[in-house]
Amino acid sequence: MASETKIVNLAEEAKLASEGVKGPTYAFTTICKSLVAGGVAGGVSRTAVAPLERMKILLQVQNPHNIKYNGTIQGLKYIWRTEGFRGLFKGNGTNCARIVPNSAVKFFSYEQASKGILHLYQKQTGNEDAQLTPLLRLGAGACAGIIAMSATYPMDMVRGRITVQTEKSPYHYRGMFHALSTVLREEGPRALYKGWLPSVIGVIPYVGLNFAVYESLKDWLIKSNPLGLVQDSELSVTTRLACGATAGTIGQTVAYPLDVIRRRMQMVGWNHAASVVSGNGRGKVPLEYNGMIDAFRKTVRYEGFGALYKGLVPNSVKVVPSIAIAFVTYEVVKDILGVEIRISD
């Protein structure tokens, strides 16, 4: 009986395909391919810039009374000298374990949110040929960012702690799962979402602007074709990389102070914290923030407004190629897998 049902279902899907209608199996396969493309894009882009990602976090959270890292170049040299090549990629395994599902969910959520918003927009305006505006793309990107970030936030939280560990740290997390279980045991489940609020607020302009600027810039280039950049209604990989780089620069500059605050909040309550966070000897000062506003106030009061942009240089150097590589990798992998839908219609 089951085999007969399967044959009937396959026959129905074949009939639908012959009529130009996509069956449920096709839709499921397309979703899986889209998720795979997003995951690959995230893993490739983050691994390519892993040393800069670690340097950024170290600059963000180091104790102001015990400065070890005075800049990007000096910091990278210090890590190389004290921890070797592997030290440059510390925390990248955990980061990839987080960013692969995060990126997969983010790209897929953006596609679905874009379709839903476009449908509502066309229905509201009564124009079936209407296209997404930059503001609507911003909204779709913000929705995708919030969904993806919330789904994988505990992994991001422990990844931040693993990243700032050094060989001299008083206590070591042995990996992501060990870190998750330790935080749960010592600090409780709420600790896994420390810094979540500034992350939500920051992800709206960050991811929203990334998608909005990238898609709008691509559309403008295709329609206006300046300098003959468009060939056969398509942009080259180099041009798409430039679009992604521009999007990444704008998004990260706007949202960066919130990223600094969330990282600092993630370190609060960490017993046996790494010395880069707690400081050494007399300079040891415990981190105590009562919330996002308190973290902003204390950071600016004790370290100045510039502290909100600590690590911006390595982050800028990291984000520009990372976002560019992610967008282009996503589109290339989708083409290889034969996925017909675009990032936005």
UniProtKB/TrEMBL annotation:
Repeat positions for Solcar: 29-116, 132-220, 235-336
Topological relation to the membrane, as annotated: Multi-pass membrane protein
Record's GO cellular component terms: mitochondrial inner membrane
Where in the cell does this protein reside? Mitochondrion inner membrane
Q: Does the keyword Repeat apply?
A: yes
Keyword Cytoplasm appears in the UniProt entry = no
Could you tell me the superkingdom of the organism this chain comes from?
A: Eukaryota
Where it mainly occurs, coarsely classed, is mitochondrion
Q: Which family does it belong to?
A: Belongs to the mitochondrial carrier (TC 2.A.29) family.
Identification of the protein by name: Mitochondrial adenine nucleotide transporter ADNT1
Annotated source species: Flemingia macrophylla
Which classification does the entry list for the species?
Eukaryota, Viridiplantae, Streptophyta, Embryophyta, Tracheophyta
